[in-house]
Amino acid sequence: MKEQLEAIRVEALERIAEVEDIKTLQDIRITYLGKKGSLTSVLKGMGKLSKEERPVVGEIANKVRDAITTSLEAKIEVLENAALEKQLEAESIDVTLPGRPVKVGGPHLLTSIVEEIEDLFIGMGYEIKEGPEVETDYFNFEALNLPKNHPARDMQDTFYITNELLLRTHTSPVQARTMREYKGIKPFKMICPGKVYRRDNDDATHSHQFTQIEGLYVDKNVRMSDLKGTLDTFAKKMFGEDRSIRLRPSFFPFTEPSVEMDISCKVCNGEGCSVCKGTGWIEILGGGMVHPNVLEMAGYDPQVYSGFAFGMGPERIAMLKYGVNDIRTFYTNDVRFLKQYHQA
To answer: Where in the cell is it found (predicted)?
Structure first.
């Protein structure tokens, strides 16, 4: 039996040394150490040995089992390391190859326009103010000289939530709130960009949701000439130093006198073309001197303080500046359109 055990050890170690894959190693383990393996079969005959021989044969059998197990484990480690090295070699990365470009987004054209306008007015001493998009009837209308049943309310078709709550139709309520915040004693300059909502049919030049930027300057001795100078600076910075402006009389309930501002057409330089409909001018925004009633309702003494206000639509600014002919383009999220203005 000792000779059998030694023969099994020698045979097993030789086969293990020759193996080149882990699956064959597992087969060898079963062949020699399994329940029906060679070593197990030999050990089943130990019952025929004498009491003196059994311990000696048992010790030899354990040594053979340990030798085969140790050899199997060592060989498995060698084969696993070799397989890993082969895999790493096959999956190696050439660090000299150029990297794959990563597509990144950029600011939306309207966002860029709003930020550009904000930077311009911040440079002129204005602060940025914000307010709620769900507004009260009082701040959206009454505080702006539009009492109940005022016919001018029909100029702004409104989304009402309740009789007293609505989606704001302009950002002017932020102006009314700011004046009330300063309690009629503090001069200030502010602009208020934000979304506004009106019951309008969407087409190439209209949208039920759009953005507005309104400005307000309240102080002592504010004059119409201050408004004109501010708007002239804005037009030249936004559209070019060669742009001219003109102010035309108009009507807004919250300003008196009221004006609309046109800029000279950049296509024809004022000569008249299809873009400006032959006039040489393009309407761009409205403004005027703050109505005394609005100042008084906000706590400012109209005998001491005066001010001017103006309002513009960033969509219209962007359409004129970049030649966009359909306002809906800003909202349809066509990447081909949007990516043209990442550097805008």
So the answer is: Cytoplasm
